[in-house]
Amino acid sequence: MNICCLDLEGVLVPEIWIALADASGISALTRTTRDEPDYGKLMAWRMDILRDHGLGLKDIQKVISTIDPLPGSKEFLDSLREKSQVIIISDTFEEFAQPLMGKLGWPTIFCNALEIDEDGMLAGVRMRCSNSKLETVRGLHAIGFETIATGDSYNDLAMIRASKAGFLFRTTEAIKADNPDLAAYETYEELLAAFESNL
Question: Which of the residues are catalytic?
Answer without folding.
Answer: 7, 9
